[in-house]
Design a protein that fits this description.
It is built from 11 helices and 7 strands. It is of the alpha/beta class. It has one domain: Alpha/Beta hydrolase fold, catalytic domain (Rossmann fold, 3-Layer(aba) Sandwich). Helix 3 crosses helix 4 and helix 5 crosses helix 6.
């Protein structure tokens, strides 16, 4: 199966990490209804400019990857296999970064072992918590019922008739440009019903915390309507780290106006590996 991978080569002559090992590749995994393109607006060039070879994949059925015909039935395990295929194709160590549902994919990849030995670190940004989205969904239903209804409808019926104003309010900070918001909304795709159910917590997908020795970064957006701050902090506690919480940032971390406020601490963490 062909998987779309958008890569950017390092713009700096940096050959080794702080540990003296080869500088790791960074692999970025997107969330629901989008593709590799979402990382290419800012994050890929930013990390390439700071000395990393970076790669964003479109999970099967997303972006320009194969698998659209079977999209509704792809599972988290299928997506984790996509990530594994990319990791195995790269020379040297890797850092894996997952956003939202992509965070669940990263956690499932870690849980299943796969090419785990190549990883030197994993980062979860506004990620699905290790126990799933049930709490977050209930909270959204209570405090943002219009948003809960819109997201539920989008996952079941597709993205063609989404309420763009509701999605803008939910996904972006107020100061994000209309150009970026419209580009995002115009490029939304449908999502797997199976994977969408699994991230609710219908099956275990996270590694047990005492079995995971990999350095972890957990980041969240203070103004996130999808993943509550409380859940980001609980995810960080699960993996034995402190959460990095960024103000004036919403769920679409990598393309929100204040994206760099998350990129900077993520870069600082990666540089120490």
């Amino acid at each position: 199966m062909h998987l779309e991978i958008i890569s950017r080569k390092s713009k700096k002559n940096v050959s080794a990490s702080k540990s003296g090992q080869p500088r790791p590749n960074i692999v970025f995994v997107h969330g629901i209804c989008v593709g590799a393109w979402i990382w290419d607006e800012y994050f890929l060039q930013y990390f390439a400019d700071h000395g990393y070879d970076v790669h964003a994949l479109s999970l099967r059925g997303h972006g320009k990857s194969d698998g659209e015909n079977g999209l509704l039935m792809w599972s988290l395990a299928d997506y984790a296999n996509d990530l594994d295929n990319v990791v195995k194709s790269l020379d040297g160590p890797v850092i894996v970064v997952g956003h939202s549902m992509g965070g669940a994919v990263v956690q499932d990849w870690l849980r299943m072992g796969m090419s785990r030995e190549k990883a030197v670190g994993a980062a979860l940004l506004a990620s699905v918590p290790p126990w799933g989205l049930v709490y977050s969904a209930v909270r959204m239903g209570l405090y943002s019922p219009h948003l809960f209804g819109e997201i539920s409808r989008m996952l079941v019926t597709g993205t063609e008739q989404i309420n763009k104003e509701a999605m803008r309010e939910a996904l972006f900070s107020e100061s994000t440009s209309d150009e970026i918001v419209n580009k995002f909304l115009d490029n939304l795709s449908n999502e797997s019903l199976v994977a969408s159910a699994e991230v609710q917590g219908l099956r275990p997908f996270a590694p047990l915390p005492w079995m995971n020795s990999l350095p972890m970064f957990v980041g969240g957006a203070v103004d996130d309507s999808f993943i509550p701050n409380f859940e980001v902090n609980r995810t960080a506690s699960y993996y034995g780290v402190d959460a990095v919480m960024v103000k004036d940032l919403a769920h679409s971390i990598m393309i929100d106006k204040n994206w760099e406020e998350m990129a900077k601490p993520l870069l600082s963490w990666a540089d120490k590996l």
